[in-house]
């Protein structure tokens, strides 16, 4: 998959769920941004740890997959609203398509997607799953 | 503002469809020659070309298509520039041509668009179209274009009570219009029931909510308005050219039920032209998916936010509506969507409508026309407003 080099560059943010917060206006961004789109040069960014909890803002079920995802279809994708505010796009796993709706509470999970040789880097993907009672 | 008035004096396009027997070069040359013939030109008059193309590199393994096109058209050594903004590439090529003439740099410029999409498999085409989304934060997670628009649809249904039946109405209208367009890919009617029962692609969107994979090309010739009568009795004047950008990823938008770039480009265009949305008689809008047309008529100001579904129910956007006819050509859904060519083909349709040459799909007394071309899920939007000049 062509996305591996750039995935590696952002693994720290993905794996540890680190976003950024603008000290000027307080908005939290994930994926992290270097420049605050509200404040531009007046803003200053700091790293912020996100909880990984949120709810489904909107979703779909992919039934005609792109190259590389043929064996996963059908799968649920969603825009998740994190409790700190930002929206993020990810797959929703460990669920049947019918279980997901706008507002369904979800939590982040990390899945190993590939390993680059014996001493290579292990790649993880950020996904979400429904929060289950108990 | 434009430093001098610009007009469109020639238009041409190929038939859109699965044109297995036609090459990329064939398509572009056919559209270009038709535009030249329409303007009564031989070709020597053309001083520069701008060509919209999204992804020849992935669809046919060919980059550097600007040179290829100048070469195959027999127009070297004039400058030819490729313009890319995903599915808005064509609209943007027209805009570059208009700006080049308005600036005084050139007098006669050809703007074209071309895409040859059917040489690859559905999975490859799906992956290529997904490169117009945020590769790192969307496509990496298995996002496809239908699923992005499906998520817009789901949220629109949640916030505004838009129904599954509402979603089916633009495709049904556009197929009906395409039966009157001899260059359309799908010249047959469909019913609401057929849309709702077609196979799911990305819930809630189904196959008949989606524009097809197509081959095709389109071209227009622009020149200063003061020269236009040398080439045509009915020049179509460019009243506004506007472009806006937004985040490439859907999740970075404040409101994903609105394409803010459409709102911004439209605001600029209406101001430039000195017209209001209700002055528009005919519009070609970017209906890559059923929900895209519902959102477009709201964001262009034809109806209030959230009210598109009911407006379609009332037939407000039909060819014979006394409100505004939307996608009389059949739109991307039924005319076809060769991505780099679509934005140019929209302009071809509006020019024919304003000239009164649109045949069975003619919008009665059309004087002001608008085109709306979207790249990706709304990261780029190009809006043009045209008026009959005589
Ligand atoms: Zn800020």
Write the layout of secondary structure elements.
The complex is a heterodimer of chains A (134) and B (390).
Chain A: H1 4-9, H2 11-16, E1 18-22, E2 28-29, E3 45-49, E4 53-62, E5 75-82, E6 87-92, E7 105-115, E8 122-130
Parallel strand pairs in A: 6-8
Antiparallel strand pairs in A: 1-2, 1-3, 4-5, 4-7, 5-6, 7-8
Chain B: E1 6-13, H1 24-38, E2 48-52, H2 56-59, H3 65-72, E3 80-83, H4 89-102, E4 109-116, H5 122-130, H6 145-160, H7 164-178, H8 192-197, E5 200-202, E6 205-206, E7 215-224, E8 236-245, H9 260-273, E9 282-284, H10 290-299, H11 308-313, E10 325-326, H12 331-335, H13 339-355, E11 368-375, E12 380-388
Parallel strand pairs in B: 2-3, 2-4, 9-10, 9-11
Antiparallel strand pairs in B: 1-7, 1-8, 4-7, 5-6, 8-12, 11-12
The complex binds zinc ion.
Zinc ion (ZN) binds at residues 22, 24-25, 27, 36, 38-39, 43 of chain A.
Q: What is the overall number of helices of chain A?
A: 2
Helix-strand string of chain B? EHEHHEHEHHHHEEEEHEHHEHHEE
Shape summary of chain A: elongated
Mean pLDDT of chain A: 85
Number of strands of chain A: 8
Strand segment tally of chain B: 12
Q: What is the quaternary state of this protein?
A: heterodimer
Order of helices and strands of chain A: HHEEEEEEEE
Give me the side-by-side strand order of the main sheet of chain A. Answer: 4-5-6-8-7
Tell me which ligands are bound.
zinc ion
Structural class of chain B: alpha/beta
- Count, helices of chain B: 13
Alpha-beta classification of chain A:
mainly beta
Largest interface, with counts of residues having CB < 8 Å to the other chain, equals: A-B, 37 and 37 residues
For the largest beta-sheet of chain A, the strand count, sense and barrel status come to: 5 strands, mixed, barrel
Low-confidence stretches of chain A: none
Strand content of chain B: 15-25%
